[in-house]
Design brief:
This protein is an alpha+beta fold and 261 residues long. It has a single domain, classed as 4-Layer Sandwich (Double-stranded beta-helix). The chain has five helices and 16 strands. The strands form four sheets. Strands 1, 2, 3, 4, 5, 6, 14 and 16 form an eight-stranded mixed β-sheet that branches. Strands 13-7-15 form a three-stranded antiparallel β-sheet. Strand 10 and strand 11 form a beta hairpin. The radius of gyration is 18 Å and the shape is globular. Belongs to the TfdA dioxygenase family.
Amino acid sequence: MRTDLLHPAGVRITGIRIADDPTALAGVLPGLLADHGFAVLPDQPLDDDEFLAFLKGFGDLTFTAGEEHLEGHPDLNVISNVGRWGTDAPPRSSFHVDTSYVAQPPAYTALRAVTVPAQGGATQFTDQYHAADTLPDDLRSRVEGRTITHVVTGVDPVEGESSADHPVLRPHPLTGRTALFLTTPARCAAVSGLDPEESEELVRLLFEHSTAPDNVVSHRWAPDDLVIWDNAAVMHRGDHDGVVGDRVMHRGMVRAHPTAG
């Protein structure tokens, strides 16, 4: 196995074939993700059963209530632009953390490439450790000890949770390293101890700081790519600008970090 560091976050892992041993990385990948946020595993031709076996090597799976299951695979869903192109604009994605509006957000999210567009369609990541480490002093003093109320948008949570409070400066469950934990501003309903106007302004500043160009790395998809990330360390988004062709991914999520219960 070879591991190459990306910048400002991420690792690229080669020299291993997941289809031959879906759990081969179960002992090492959580630590790599805790340190580097996300991992790209190129040249991994997998079917959905093999993809699920890979995910289950890290723990129990979870699913976002209200989203549509992949037929025959209730733990997976489809991320796709097929059928979503309107007359005015393509689908859009803001940097976010998956299902952060629950008390225990998913530890890991993974995508396997099913159909890769001829142009565009990258997945982008922000390094939330670096965002925390580089907070200006005035912003750090404003967020110390505060929480953000994360709320659901875009899906009906049915009988599930729809709101949760998380520390703005959140220790990673495995390492204790501090990350700036937020999501797209539309899902950040309030900051503890602040009125609505102050909350909105602070979230805007934190989000702008996190998504500054020098804190973003893009992964351009290739056929058979497998990408997995740690939701406690990065935000992510799909870049839909200038996409040519179909973009279809299958997504699965792991409930908890290995030592987080």
